[in-house]
Amino acid sequence: xxxxxxxxxxxxxxxxxxxxxxxxxxxxxxxxxxxxxxxxxxxxxxxxxxxxxxxxxxxxxxxxxxxxxxxxxxxxxxxxxxxxxxxxxxxxxxxxxxxxxxxxxxxxxxxxxxxxxxxxxxxxxxxxxxxxxxxxxxxxxxxxxxxxxxxxxxxxxxxxxxxxxxxxxxxxxxxxxxxxxxxxxxxxxxxxxxxxxxxxxxxxxxxxxxxxxxxxxxxxxxxxxxxxxxxxxxxxxxxxxxxxxxxxxxxxxxxxxxxxxxxxxxxxxxxxxxxxxxxxxxxxxxxxxxxxxxxxxxxxxxxxxxxxxxxxxxxxxxxxxxxxxxxxxxxxxxxxxxxx
Length: 340
Ligand SMILES: Cc1ncc(COP(=O)(O)O)c(C=O)c1O
Description:
This protein is α/β, with parallel strands linked by helices. Helices cover about 40% and strands about 15% of the residues. Pyridoxal-5'-phosphate binds near residues 162, 195, 196 and 199.
């Protein structure tokens, strides 16, 4: 099999993973890495808002790895979970439409906003079916106890597209960044700032940066609650578990190699505010600064909170800082059929 290492530089380093994971090309990679001169000489942005020509953002990298599983299992329907205005729901329903399989999204309420309403319209364009639940708890129960779990051909994909396969999407992204640094597209960042919710973006980046030999410090800006009732939800331990799962796969495939210590997960909850999806004054201010400096749209659930942390980091040190933009910047299509 010819390995596409331009798309997945991870396989240059770990060729045996290529056959095992066999991702499906969905994303436009590498995404650009750019300076933001209006924010000073140390400000850099990784444009994962451009991962797909119709709907970008961080889910597309994950879905390259998840789609292989969906196909291998001959899945005939995909079920996922998210807030009313879930970004993941858009990406999943878009890929399901492309694969010609139905997509059901179990939703829980979220504060209304223009982004939420636009996201709903995106999902409708991609023929998503909504299974509306009145609370987060009920949505989670519905997800885990869904009657379709007993039907062959049902694929359940956790919120934010996080599962053991999807971590490899962001592991690969770290190797992609290393190639861009080597090619002189940007300096090695002292810091990488990214939002964290379901966890696999931060898990893949943290482990990937370490395996790629970069010395950047990856900080996840927590935008979801640490606990769901008695269960850990958005915590370093949850992310570390995802990293450990990916590392087990790597060790199994490359058993002759020795690896250093697992990196620790850095998570900062200072920008969370009063709850998931609730905006903060700092996020609103950062969104306005980004709009001015880059023309890019951010939103207040994820990227606005991470952008606030990014601006603070830039202000307190004199080293390159990279903002990993996880939020789609493609415009709502006039015609959903135009993507195929
Ligand atoms: C725009 C955006 N940024 C960041 C995240 C968080 O990524 P993850 O769920 O991998 O932690 C999400 C989704 O959950 C998202 O939609």
